[in-house]
Amino acid sequence: MREVGLRLDVFLLALTILWAPALSDLVLSKVDRRIDLTSQIARITSTLKVENAGSGLVSEVLLAFPESQAKHLAHLTATPNEGKGKVKGSGISYPVQLVHAKDMPPSLTFYSVSLPKGLGKGDSFTFDVLAVFTHALKPFPEKITQADIQLLVFQDSAHYLSPYAVKVQTLSVKLPDARIESYTRIENTKNIGSEIKYGPYENLPPYSYSPIVVHFESNQPFAVAEELVREIEISHWGNIQVTEHYKLVHGGAQSKGEFSRLDYQARPHVRGASAIRRLVAKLPPRAHSVYYRDEIGNVSTSNLWSDFKKTELEIEPRYPMFGGWRTAFTIGYGLPLHEFLFESDGKRFINISFGCPINEVVIDTLIVKVVLPEGSRDISVSAPFPLKQWQEKKFSHLDLVGRPVVALEKTNAVPEHNQKFQVYYKFNSLAMLWEPLMLIFGIFFLFVTGIVYMHVDMSISKSSASYLAKLQWDEVQAAIQQIRNIIARCLVIHDKVEASLRDLSRTGDIQACKAARKAADGLLKELSKEMKPLLAFLQSSQQAAHLLPKVEELVVKVKDLEERLMVKHSTIVDCYEKKYGGREIENRVASQVQKITALRQEVDDLLEFIDEI
């Protein structure tokens, strides 16, 4: 099915380019293409030597891409050719922009490279073009088990697709391993180890296209960040806090069947060759306070190496990631402010990297948020590539109007986008004192409030009706409590009278029992005198109106209990003087004992009721 689709694409492409007009002014005298497929990102570097075969001045060169490639194009740049084997160090790039050329095939996408100077008749110029593609490598088969190796398919053309005629062209395809399942063999094709070479091919007409398919083994991890949100918060007190939120998925061949942890632990490079086991983030040299966590909490399976040139954070997910598996985590670290914040023409600007610090990660959606200090104004952004941008507000501690946030979004981001960008803004240095002054005045106000509270009488006015009512209720409660205490003392005296009767039955000492009775009478009379003014106060107070009936009932019950107890005492003493027997004495006082018991229970119930109130 995949082969049928490829043939159909090639057929449609061939139909559209047969009638396409050639641009005769320019000729590509030499083309050297190098395709790097050693990672999940396909990088195609083309060295083009253009020659003006016409009479007019030429200032731009068109680059053509089939629609199947153009939709996966993530990065395109044109740079001076430094010569074979030389390291590029100039940092110069030529302007590249998307164009809609007239009378060109609709299935092709064209980009224009502006040359540094126009080419006259017979002049030539050599430059390099780097095209970076994501999701161009397709797993085939699309689903594999834990023990299977991962195989990928890549499609391209052995001939350089261009609106210009090509005199000489070569192509080399660099693979991650020498184990190749299959590849298209045409004229002048050879395989040397992990590299496939096509060409040289001479005198190719414009829009020449010769499809090739390479099916090869690659166990490189396909780490794809479906979304990465980087928040860069600037503090003029000397620190930049960077927080990165990742939603990661393994974009390679989907895993099918069961996962065996035992097999993976025993032979991880065989039973999980294409799994993502670890990721390495290259942080700035003096990064500090580095952390790595997910939704569960801090993840301890990480290592950090740092020196004066770089800081590397090696992280391991909580589980090995096979095809289609997902994870989400957060990386955070701090940076010294003076190494990234500068000042120019009355404006401050931050100069920091845009992309992802983790190696060879494809990012479907990258959002970078730069949080500026509160009070920043006249904000502008300078970036080396087009970005979608907007502004937000973020509130943090001690903020009043919020901190301005510059949000930048880039889709289909690759490591080549990890370039410096700048955010310019104006900021009054005196505004730095605002938050410390707020903190100082806040603490000062707190202490002043405490002093005022301690020295000012916050109670209700003593002349108000509610305050007077509260005082009266407090007096009522105090009087009831005193009556309660007097009754408790009366009950204690009653218990002593009962105890004297028990002693009488044991010792027969009538005189001692009479003496105890006489003492009890004296104490009870004194307690009765103490209770009279308290009852009179309750009877005169409106606050005690709802409690007075119960208190009076309690006093009556206690008085009745006292009288019946004394009758019982007199009866028993009289019986002892007349020398009656024990059973006769019990019969005489039996009715009194029952009444005393009942009255004592009623008194206890009334006391409990008053205590609850």
TrEMBL record:
It holds the Pfam family Ribophorin_I. The chain crosses the membrane at residues 437-456. InterPro entries: Ribophorin_I. It is a single-pass type I membrane protein. Keywords: Endoplasmic reticulum, Membrane, Signal, Transmembrane, Transmembrane helix. It is found in: Endoplasmic reticulum membrane. The keyword Transmembrane helix applies. Belongs to the OST1 family. Component of the oligosaccharyltransferase (OST) complex. Subunit of the oligosaccharyl transferase (OST) complex that catalyzes the initial transfer of a defined glycan (Glc(3)Man(9)GlcNAc(2) in eukaryotes) from the lipid carrier dolichol-pyrophosphate to an asparagine residue within an Asn-X-Ser/Thr consensus motif in nascent polypeptide chains, the first step in protein N-glycosylation. N-glycosylation occurs cotranslationally and the complex associates with the Sec61 complex at the channel-forming translocon complex that mediates protein translocation across the endoplasmic reticulum (ER). All subunits are required for a maximal enzyme activity. This is Dolichyl-diphosphooligosaccharide--protein glycosyltransferase subunit 1. It comes from Prunus mume (Japanese apricot).
